[in-house]
Design goal:
Layout lengths: L2 E7 L4 E7 L4 E7 L8 H18 L12 E5 L7 H8 L5 E5 H10 L6 E4 L3 E4 L1
Parallel strand pairs: 1-4, 4-5
Antiparallel strand pairs: 1-2, 2-3, 6-7
C-alpha cells in the first residue's frame, strides 16, 4: 500500500498524519517542537519520531518511511536556507517543506479568497 505523510511542526510540537494514496488518514502522532529556525537538528529528530509513531499508530512498519513522500508545514521554513537544509537531511522518498502558514491557509480556504491567522507559540497572518 502507498502512503503519504502530512507533518505540521511548530515551536511547541510536531504532529504527523499518515494517509493512504486515496487520502484516508490511517495513523496520527505527536512529538516535540519542530521549528527549523531555532533547532534544525532537534526539529528533524522530532519530525522523524512523529512520522515513526504515525506508522505505528496505523499498524504499519516504520521501515516504510524511506519509501513515503511527505509534505511538511513548518515554522521557520520561510527564513534563510533552513527549508533547503532540512529537505537535504529528511529520510522520506520526497520532501516538500512549506511554511506552516502556507499549509494552514491552503487548508482553510483552498483555492478561494480569504484570510487566516495562526495564534500559537508563534503568530502568522495571511490573506
Amino acid at each position: 500500500m502507498n502512503f503519504v505523510l502530512g507533518i505540521d511542526g511548530g515551536g511547541t510540537s510536531c504532529r504527523a498524519a499518515l494517509a493512504t494514496a486515496g487520502g484516508m488518514v490511517v495513523g496520527r502522532a505527536k512529538s516535540g517542537a519542530a521549528n527549523i529556525r531555532t533547532d534544525l537538528t532537534g526539529a528533524r529528530s522530532n519530525i522523524v519520531e512523529a512520522a515513526r509513531q504515525a506508522f505505528v499508530d496505523a499498524g504499519q512498519d516504520p521501515e516504510l518511511i524511506p519509501q513515503t513522500p511527505a509534505i511538511l508545514g513548518l515554522a521557520g521554513a520561510n527564513v534563510g536556507t533552513y527549508r533547503q537544509q532540512l529537505e537535504a537531511i529528511l529520510p522520506f522518498s520526497q520532501s516538500r517543506v512549506e511554511t506552516d502558514a502556507e499549509i494552514a491557509l491552503e487548508g482553510a480556504i483552498g483555492s478561494g479568497d480569504g484570510a487566516m491567522a495562526i495564534l500559537g507559540t508563534g503568530t502568522a497572518y495571511m490573506a
